[in-house]
Amino acid sequence: MTMSKWFLKSPSDDAEYRLFCFPYSGCGASMFLKWPSRLGAVEVLPLQLPGRENRMREPHYGTYEELAADVVDGIAGYLDRPYGVFGHCGGALPAFETVLRIQELGLRPPERCFVSSQVAPQDGPHGRFLGLSEDGLRAELSGLFGELGSAEPPAEMVDMFLEVMTADLEANRRYVKPAAGRAPCPLTVVGWEHDHEVPHELMGGWARWAEADKVVLPGTHYTFLGAPAELMERLRSGLVGG
Prior knowledge:
This protein is of the alpha/beta class.
């Protein structure tokens, strides 16, 4: 199978399970650079979305529905074994919409969908970022770069990410849908004890879509970036069991 533009590296043929990871608003697949490539039998596969990093020349995806349709077209050939999807905050909703698209097309559903720091679709849009000015978003991006290990990013880099984040946040604003159906797989709803962006108490609406296990882990909104052991084990066991 030829290399897909949706991945930074080709999925392995010998992986027993796959975990497709959607990046956070404004970011690309490299935001998962601190994550391991394997969680036991599970291969971790960050997705590269259009309009960022090595796909920065491509236009923005527009809406989560349009993105989900394109993602499924791109990864359909890799749904040949048990898999899951993961998204945090601005990555959770397109991850979930992709699961619904997979269901609509009658393709093999995931074993589990992991949604972190995000309210259910019928309860949004929600988030402080949605109301920030351009200067406010610049400040947040600088903080995010710090979390990723780049204390003082060049201004041109911040400008580039700002354009992508602005378009991503607009997609978030436009994504509102009632809990009128059922997802084709169970959910693991991940909250964070000290997350002031999306308090875990607001995440109960996911249970209207599917059987939902909720877990609250120690940490803040950005703790997931560092691949905390508790999260990694939840992802592994949620797919493999045991």
